[in-house]
Amino acid sequence: MKLKGWKELTPGAVILEAGNAVEFKTGSWRAFKPIWKQENCIQCLFCWLYCPDMAVKVKDGKRADFDYDYCKGCGICALECPGKKGKKAIVMVEEGK
Amino acid sequence: MSKVVAATGNEAVANALRQVNPDVCAAYPITPQTDMMQRFSSYVSDGQVKTELILVESEHSAMSACIGASAAGGRVATATCGPGLALMWEMLFVASGTRLPIVMPVVNRALSAPLNIHGDHSDAMGARDSGWIHLWSENAQEAYDNTIQAFRIAEHMDIRLPVMVCLDGFIISHSIERMEYLEDDEVKKFVGEYKPLNPLLDLEHPKSMGPLILPDLYHEFKRAQHEVMTKVKDVVLNVAEEFEILSGRRYGLFEAYRLDDAEIALVILNSAAGTSKDVVDEFRKGGIKAGLLKPRLFRPFPYEEVAQALKHLKAICVLDRADSFGGYGPLFMEISSALYPLKERPIMINKIYGLGGRDFLPQHAEQVLSELAEITKTGKFKIIKEYIGVRE
């Protein structure tokens, strides 16, 4: 995205386009990445419920993969995940490893 | 048709606000401003204005409420002074950075400690860099006239910046003077219908205000804010020209009093300029070519115009009713910045006077003008910054 020069800005930093947060991809803030392990998932959708962003995708009522464009790696989903037989369906892995 | 009345500064400004009839006012009482918004609240209670008056719990909240109401799309005003302005400090920058045309009379008062409620310019000088336009007023008439003009300047579509109108606490706010009011209709017509810019209440066009701007864009926003300030001078002069047609009273960026052929001059803000002009007249009678410059537009500061007005002088004294401890007085710093680019400059000295409401007497102006006359003879001066009217 080309950054604007000072002559192109809206007075007072008012954002005139509604719903523009979708353009601001915040996934790069992530230090730890959640990995979904489908074999341990019981489809409780706690991760979808607890995600403070909208980074857990649901398709046809079922858990789909993460949207890494917006996941900031807060780890709440991994903490809340009940898993199956003591094995988590979401684990946090350090980025760059 | 104007009406001649006897009114205090607070009364005059409250009446200007009544005539403008803003959509929203938020205010918190603080001496010596209290009496102004108390009068205005009576207009609200008596149904003389349609203003929504929000009584808040602090000046920080007053300015916050004004910011919200202005962002929503209303014509907004408040008033404060001294420590109230200091408490607003954070929100002053939000108002200007968001380009909200809020108008705020500031009844200049000293800052604590020691606690003092009297006239002093430390409050507004502390808000010097807040991005607000500053208009200063010598007396109740100027405070009234500036308040009315402030709405036109703030709301101009090329500007959209908040404006503070400064008048001296007690000396002007509580003294009764002869002055002239415009008719209600004339003021209503002069300020015109309020035109909002990108209002939040335009529900067809949802928008966000007050976003986080990171280092990749903040610098550009501040550069753009500076650019707006470069357009203010012309708008101030155009509004003044229209106001003169209406009122017969002329305003500029500053008042130059007997300055054209002067050799020595005082540079001084607000009420003390009135006292000083009488003394300038006395010196003229005595054959000494004295003059005076009284700034009106302090932010943006008209550096080039002030330099042109002062360049021919031999010696000037800038008098400050505020101090920068460990620095020169704030007005002195502006005048010296204005004159520095000139090849030949007048000798300049700085006097700090009248802090915490200490009277500025004709003898103080006499003392300074005599010192300037002496400097022009000898070309020598000892101390640049000095306190006058102070007990040893």
Q: What is the number of helices of chain A?
A: 2
Low-confidence stretches of chain A: none
Summed up, the domain count of chain B is 2
CATH topology call of one domain in chain A = Alpha-Beta Plaits
Q: What is the global morphology of chain A?
A: elongated
Give the percentage of residues in beta strands of chain A.
Answer: 15-25%
Characterize the main sheet of chain A: 2 strands, antiparallel
> Biggest sheet of chain B: strands side by side, in what order?
9-11-10-13-14-15
Approximately how much helix is present in the residues of chain A? 10-25%
Mean pLDDT of chain A: 94
What's the total count of β strands of chain A?
4
Radius of gyration of chain B: 21 Å
Interface with most residues = A-B, 16 and 23 residues
Widest sheet: strand ordering of chain A: 1-4
The portion of residues assigned to helices of chain B is 40-55%
Rg of chain A, rounded, reads 17 Å
In the CATH hierarchy, the third-tier topology of the largest domain in chain B is known as Rossmann fold
- SSE series of chain A: EHEEHE
Name given to the CATH architecture of one domain in chain A: 2-Layer Sandwich
Regions with little confidence, pLDDT below 50 for 5+ residues of chain B: none
Q: Which class do the helix and strand fractions of chain B yield?
A: alpha/beta
